[in-house]
Amino acid sequence: MVVDQLLNFNFAAVFALIGASFYVVTYYMKTMVPLRIVGIIANLFFLAYGYFYPSYPTVVLYLGILPINIFRLIEMQRLIRQVRDSSSTDQSMDWLKPFMTKRTYKKGDVLFRKNERAHEMFYVVTGKFLVSEIGVTIPAGQVFGELGLLAPENRRTSSVECVESGAVLTITYDKVQELYFQNPTFGFYFLRLTTERLLQNITRLETMLAQRELAAGASAAPAPAPERKPAKRAEA
Questions:
Q1: Which residues pair with 130 in a beta bridge?
Q2: Which of the chain's termini has less CB crowding within 10 Å, N or C?
Q3: pTM of the full structure
Q4: Strand pairing partners for 155?
Q5: Could you tell me the residue range of the domain that residue 157 belongs to?
Q6: Which parts of 160-220 fold into alpha helices (H)?
Q7: How far apart are alpha carbons 159 and 131 in whole angstroms?
Q8: More confident residue, 77 or 224
């Protein structure tokens, strides 16, 4: 009996030491996925420690923490996979929906004005929204307001108003930055998506400018001279 208790204590001490070592390592992890993996390993060793010691409150504690770490790890891996798929196919931002909150607007509501401080981006669920300065309509399924995250002093580059009542999903820049720093892969693909959207905006503006120049050139062209009829000869 005493021997069994000593063996259990020795096992418990070893598991506790290993678990504590992994726990200390988590403080040096800079990204979320490795942190969760190391945290799960530490949880397992602390569970073993609680079982062999025995310390049932410790077992209950880490049985509660373990599924949380596993869930967060799966959630982050799913997010990374969805971001990668999105960036390789289209500009869908469905991967951000779990981190966004819903908001509704009526026709005529102004979401934000040019040069205002920006702190969130939007995903259109229903309705239509108009970028006032360039006359571009934003339909359902599109994202806007993300450029404010990269703009100097986080200023809005244009104004947006609701032209057809609908709903949007919003996410704060703080949350976007949190996701960025949690995993470098997320940050890379988010910047890639943002860059592609910026290039789309530049292309659209260049097209509009070319159309305006053509219209201005056509209106400035001189009108054709009226056709001159030959003078009739006087009869003798």
A1: 137, 161
A2: C
A3: 0.55
A4: 117
A5: 94-216
A6: 173-182, 184-220
A7: 6
A8: 77
